[in-house]
């Protein structure tokens, strides 16, 4: 039997198991990830975040003194980036005194991201460039289809704008959306469904690659805001409401920043 300790946290109810593994000794096998993320027989989470020193990450050739956010989806797949996970990771580093101020850099597979903890408790992170493609793709779900904007936030997104009043709530996201052309997203995609509530105010639901419907997706919120900016030529910060809460995105050119809450809810020990 293997025993390990963990923390659990969430950002707008996108929830994560956090494993401290400074020197990269833990075996992050997909079967292990699936077992701990199982909501019936495991701890239950949308993903696992391993807290590891960048110098212990084989493919990392940047600043080795940083902490690296090693992110896995609940199905065991690796993702390049997780926006909500980054804030939860930052909160954990602060709580565990692994950083010595409220402003620090974090290494991720999508590059280095900056964290700023505000006095009122919200956390702002840089999210890199949100790159909106010129060509739309098609998303299908439940016998319907929509044009979708393809956005890269380090990880892949397809953003669908819905027009009808109750359409967002009526979607059945127990079913996985599909997309065309298949080559547009060779490693899968996160699909966001969006309603514009007012200028600069959006509501969104998401079907995450490697998980299914989640209560929130930080990179999805950034992708949605970037697609909205392009569609409506909008300026200024953009507020996005997801089932799990509220997040705000602002841009400097294509460079996005995401602000929202992050909470550590407890810690425990798991036997496998
Ligand atoms: N929930 C995350 C995104 C996690 C990764 C995603 N499912 C993927 O596979 O790209 C977020 O908050 O950004």
In short:
This protein has 272 residues and is mainly beta.
Secondary structure layout:
Elements: E1 3-11, E2 14-20, H1 30-37, E3 47-53, E4 67-73, H2 83-95, E5 103-108, E6 111-117, E7 123-129, E8 131-132, E9 137-141, E10 144-152, E11 156-161, H3 167-170, E12 178-180, E13 190-198, E14 201-208, E15 212-214, H4 218-232, E16 238-242, E17 245-252, E18 255-260, E19 263-271
Parallel strand pairs: 2-3, 4-5, 11-13, 14-16
Antiparallel strand pairs: 1-2, 1-19, 3-4, 5-6, 6-7, 7-18, 8-10, 9-10, 9-12, 10-11, 13-14, 14-15, 16-17, 17-18
The chain binds the ligand N[C@@H](CCC[C@H](N)C(=O)O)C(=O)O.
The ligand N[C@@H](CCC[C@H](N)C(=O)O)C(=O)O binds at residues 14, 47, 73, 79, 82-85, 155, 190, 208-211, 217-219.
Family: Belongs to the diaminopimelate epimerase family.
Pathway: Amino-acid biosynthesis; L-lysine biosynthesis via DAP pathway; DL-2,6-diaminopimelate from LL-2,6-diaminopimelate: step 1/1
Function: Catalyzes the stereoinversion of LL-2,6-diaminopimelate (L,L-DAP) to meso-diaminopimelate (meso-DAP), a precursor of L-lysine and an essential component of the bacterial peptidoglycan.
């Amino acid at each position: 039997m293997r025993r390990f300790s963990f923390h659990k946290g969430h950002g707008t109810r996108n929830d994560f198991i956090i494993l401290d593994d400074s020197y990269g000794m833990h075996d992050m096998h997909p079967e292990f990830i699936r077992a701990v993320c199982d909501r019936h027989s495991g701890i239950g989470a949308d993903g696992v975040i391993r807290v590891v020193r960048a110098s212990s990450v084989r493919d990392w050739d940047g600043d080795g003194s940083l902490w690296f956010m090693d992110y896995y989806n609940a199905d065991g797949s690796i993702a390049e980036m997780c926006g909500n996970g980054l804030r939860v990771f930052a909160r954990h580093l602060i709580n565990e005194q692994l950083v010595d101020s409220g402003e620090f850099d974090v290494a991720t597979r999508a590059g280095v991201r900056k964290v700023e903890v505000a006095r009122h408790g919200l956390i702002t992170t840089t999210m890199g460039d949100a790159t909106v493609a010129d060509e739309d793709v098609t998303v299908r779900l439940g016998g319907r289809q929509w044009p979708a904007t393809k956005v890269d936030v380090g990880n892949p997104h397809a953003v669908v704008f819905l027009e009808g009043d109750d359409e967002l709530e009526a979607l059945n996201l127990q079913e996985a959306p599909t997309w065309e052309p298949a080559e547009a997203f060779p490693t899968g995609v996160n699909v966001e469904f969006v309603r514009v509530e007012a200028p600069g105010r959006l509501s969104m639901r998401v079907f995450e690659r490697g998980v299914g419907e989640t209560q929130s997706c930080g990179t999805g919120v950034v992708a949605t805001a970037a697609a909205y900016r392009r569609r409506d030529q909008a300026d200024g910060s953009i507020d996005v409401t997801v089932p799990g809460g509220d997040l705000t995105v602002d841009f400097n050119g294509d460079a996005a920043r995401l602000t929202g809450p992050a909470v550590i809810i407890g810690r425990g020990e798991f036997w496998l």
